[in-house]
Specification:
The chain has about 170 residues and is mainly α. Helices cover about 40% and strands about 10% of the residues. A hairpin with a 6-residue loop joins β1 and β2.
């Protein structure tokens, strides 16, 4: 959907997970073995991964000032289950948040926490187009991006507004 470059750091994982579902076509890359392998998921883990994906999408819509696309499990509740700890390097005293396992929930929790610390979490948004809701990283100076792609979703929205004025 988007011609934008991937989100920075661990947010690329969040962006990639949200973008596994093409809302317009209904295609879900998690339905394929290759799509699941990208996130190290088994078929048994799919319901929880999809639940996480849609809760993330709702949070990204909120970042863009939009209501949730549907009722979802609160992201706080899903990430509260993620086993994390603070690892402190004995040589230099640096610290980092680390998952205790390789679960998708733990990896996403680390990505969100790191992005929050870096000040980038709020820049990951979901496209306002109801047929899209694709995740994109808003690099605009004012942080007011609205669409994943100006040439597709943005152009469609502007054309709809133009036609509504003409009618």
């Amino acid at each position: 959907m988007s011609e934008r470059s991937p989100a920075p750091g661990g947010l690329e994982l969040v962006q990639a997970l949200v973008n596994t579902l093409d809302i317009e076509s209904g295609a879900d890359s998690l339905d394929t073995a290759e799509g699941r392998a990208r996130f190290a998921l088994t078929e048994d883990e799919l319901p929880r991964a999809r639940e996480l994906r849609e809760s993330l999408r709702a949070a990204l819509l909120a970042h863009a000032g939009h209501p949730p696309h549907r009722e979802v499990t609160p992201l706080t509740r899903l990430l509260a289950r993620a086993p994390l700890y603070v690892a402190v390097d004995e040589r230099d005293g640096s610290a980092r948040l680390t998952p205790t396992d390789d679960s998708l929930h733990a990896r996403v929790a680390v990505a969100v926490a790191e992005a929050l610390t870096a000040g980038t979490w709020g820049r990951l948004k979901a496209c306002e187009a109801v047929t899209c809701h694709w995740a994109y990283y808003d690099r605009s100076p004012a942080g007011r991006g609205r669409w994943c792609s100006m040439s597709v979703c943005g152009a469609r929205a502007k054309m709809r507004r133009y036609r509504a004025k003409e009618a």
